Amino acid sequence: MTNDIVRVWGTADSFVLEYRKGADGRWYAEVPPDITDGQYAAEIHARNTCGETACWTGILYMHRGRAELRLRPQRYTLWLQPTELALCLLPPAVRLILKER
Questions:
Q1: Distance CA 14, CA 49 (A)
Q2: Residue 22 half-sphere exposure, CB side, CA atoms within 13 Å?
Q3: Which residues, 6+ apart, have CB-to-CB distance to 6 below 8 Å?
Q4: Beta carbons of 21 and 29 less than 8 angstroms apart
Q5: Residue 74 has pLDDT above 90, yes or no
Q6: CA-CA distances (angstroms) from residue 24 to 20, 28, 45, 51, 95?
Q7: Which of 14, 29, 47, 82 has the smallest count of CB within 10 Å of its CB?
Q8: Which of the four pLDDT bands, split at 50, 70 and 90, describes residue 39?
Q9: What digits encode the pLDDT tens for the residues 14-37?
Q10: What angle do CA 45, 47, 48 make, to 5 degrees?
Q11: What pLDDT is stored for residue 18 in this prediction?
Q12: What is the model's pTM?
């Protein structure tokens, strides 16, 4: 089974986005130009064939009439242990440990 993206959706300011996959394999959505400040508060979700969902939040800025976001998959491992919750990014660049006080 491949692990391809099957759906991408989200919001940009108050606009609901449902992305469509183009012939080039990229996902596209359109929103009206933001002429007040040229930026969008965005939340983008993607789901793959395995049912896994990823989410990105941030600000998209318009440049030459377009706002573009490129997401690249990044592997991670989530370890659940009785004493700690650790999120480790692979390759090991960051390890975040959450502990109860």
A1: 28
A2: 6
A3: 47, 48, 49
A4: no
A5: no
A6: 11, 10, 20, 23, 36
A7: 82
A8: confident
A9: 899 999 999 988 888 888 887 788
A10: 150
A11: 93
A12: 0.65
